[in-house]
């Protein structure tokens, strides 16, 4: 499994369970695959699974590629943050984690899309393949993972609108060339059931 995805998902679950039970962050395992020490971003997404209902989002936090953090460290930190620091939800309880699936999205390095006309974005962004980052200045930045527009059934214009809103910008800010739009790809690894088998998830 590319990017040692199964390893990352198991590590993310262990990081969450250890923190919830013992209030400590796990150390990076000494025998971790070497490619996990590359500089790469990661997002951890948690879904609550209740019998008879569709799985519901329970937390999602991550980190974009950084020269100061490896993929494995980003996964550990993002897993804990998704469980206890997502402002949209109360912290996950230790007994609750047994009903939650853990998903890790490994991000490629973001690529800034330099265009002369904002309409050119429609030739450079592919729904289901590219995640987006919108930013303006040092404080306004928003990110949407590549699976989000597929799950929400957005077209490309809606996708651009929502990533701008995520950055705290007007929805049409992408039509202003002062707004920087970047794309990236995401490789998704997820538990099929809480603490169950792990698969690489196809978006389309």
In short:
The protein is an alpha+beta fold and 204 residues long. It has helices spanning 5-22, 71-84, 121-124, 147-152, 156-166; strands at residues 41-48, 56-63, 100-107, 111-112, 130-136, 140-144, 180-191, 198-201. The chain has two domains: 2-107, Hypothetical protein ph0010, domain 1 (Glycoprotein, Type 4 Pilin); 111-184, 2-Layer Sandwich (Dna Ligase, domain 1), CATH 3.30.1490.
The CATH topology label of the largest domain is Glycoprotein, Type 4 Pilin
Q: Give the total of beta strands.
A: 8
CATH architecture of the largest domain: 2-Layer Sandwich
Overall number of domains = 2
Average residue pLDDT: 94
> How far apart, in Å, are the first and last alpha carbons?
19 Å
The value of Rg in angstroms is 17 Å
CATH class value of the largest domain:
Alpha Beta
Return the structural class.
alpha+beta
Structural key phrases:
single chain; 204 residues; alpha+beta; Glycoprotein, Type 4 Pilin; Dna Ligase, domain 1; 2 domains; eight-stranded antiparallel sheet; 5 helices; 26% helix; globular
Walkthrough of the structure:
The protein has 204 residues and is of the alpha+beta class. The chain folds into two domains: 2-107, Glycoprotein, Type 4 Pilin; 111-184, 2-Layer Sandwich (Dna Ligase, domain 1). The chain is 26% helix and 26% strand. The chain has five helices and eight strands; from the N terminus they run αββαββαββααββ. It has helices spanning 5-22, 71-84, 121-124, 147-152, 156-166, and strands spanning 41-48, 56-63, 100-107, 111-112, 130-136, 140-144, 180-191, 198-201. Strands 1, 2, 3, 4, 5, 6, 7 and 8 form an eight-stranded antiparallel β-sheet that branches. Helix 1 (5-22) packs across helix 2. The longest helix has 18 residues, at 5-22. It is globular, with a radius of gyration of 17 Å. The two termini are 19 Å apart. The relative contact order is 0.18.
